[in-house]
Amino acid sequence: MTKDHLKMDDTSPESTLETSVNGRNSRRTFLKGAAAASAAVAGAGLLRESANAQAADSIATIFNIAATAETLAVTFYTNGVNNATALGLSGNDLDEIKAALLEEEIHLEFFMANGGVPAAQTFSFPDGPATFTSLSNFISTQQQLEGVFDSAFIAAAYEFGQLGRADLTRYACMIAMIESEHRALGRDIARSNNVSLTAAMAGTATTDPADNWAFAPQTIPSVGAAPGIVQAAGYLSPSGSNSFTYQKPDVTSATYATVYAAVMFKAPSIAM
Q1: pLDDT value at residue 71
Q2: Distance CA 263, CA 24 (A)
Q3: What is the pLDDT of residue 6?
């Protein structure tokens, strides 16, 4: 896929990372809002355009925010792999975390190859270093992050449609589906290890069934809203021991080579 094929039509993108946000929003609040919105849609009729339809961010803004989100995701999963013993991760569970890491890296490289620029390389986590010593903390954090990523790519698909870019809508859908797989796999890992989750972060403390969504909710109003939400949740304030910097995974290393070889469709695949 070439950069020219995904050529952006915007030369003045909005800021890709908000530095402040009014109030703090929990994942549980987002899910409650999504449920209310779903009920409203059902009552109003699926084919009627909402009078409050989200305004489209620029393509450049969306790509920059996506690159930042993927950098955060790789950083999160890298520290999970590095602390697998403390988290009690091994065997298939660990391989699934490695696969998620590598898939996020592939997404990051896709966005960067097409002009996306990460706005940050160093991040924090709501539970700080304890994120990577407690499996409950780790998967609860993963659920919050993947839930926001799911929503952001749903929002991106809608905004690309508003901009008349059906090609980009398709790519956003391809990535959203993988982010949703990560969410379900995280819940499955928690379930198989008899771990309960933090409901305020994960939406629910229970993990059975792992695939517990019929429709993935769009819990953020637009892609441009994602940085403020992520900052409010505690991911963009690195300080002291709660400071974690992105490291590109070495896919040829003993840690990742076998899993990387098993990952399929490393580039968008479209039937012609």
Answers
A1: 99
A2: 37
A3: 52
Long-range pairs for 205-210 at CB < 8 Å and ≥24 separation? 210/184, 210/185
Residue identified by tokens 């097409």 is 114
With 90 as the cut, is the pLDDT of residue 115 above it?
yes
233: CATH: 1.20.1260
What whole-number distance in Å separates Cα of residue 160 and Cα of residue 93? 35
Whether residue 165 contacts residue 59, with contact meaning beta carbons closer than 8 Å, is answered with: yes
Report cis status (omega within 30 of 0) of the bond before 209.
yes
Residue 271 lies in a domain: no
What is the rounded CA–CA span in Å between residue 111 and residue 207?
32
Q: What is the pLDDT of residues 196-225, one digit of tens each?
A: 999 999 999 999 999 999 999 999 999 999
Q: Is residue 1 part of a domain?
A: no
Handedness of CA 133, 135, 138, 140 (dihedral sign): negative
Q: Return the closest-CA partner of residue 223 out of 168, 173, 156, 149.
A: 156
Mean pLDDT of 66-87: 99
For the cut 80, the answer to whether the pLDDT of residue 124 exceeds it is yes
- The Cα 33–Cα 180 span in angstroms is 19
Q: Higher model confidence: residue 25 or residue 190?
A: 190
Is 22 inside a domain boundary? no
Task: Say if 21 falls within a structural domain.
Answer: no
Which candidate, 9, 16, 14, 6, places its Cα nearest to that of 171?
6
φ, ψ for residue 185, nearest 5 deg: -65, -40
Tokens representing 11? 């030369």
Residue 122 burial by CB count (10 A; 0-12/13-18/19+): exposed, middle or buried? Answer: middle
Q: Number of structural domains, the chain?
A: 1
What are 8's two structure tokens?
């952006």
Predicted local distance difference test score (pLDDT) of residue 251: 98
Range of the domain at 84: 27-32+53-206+219-262
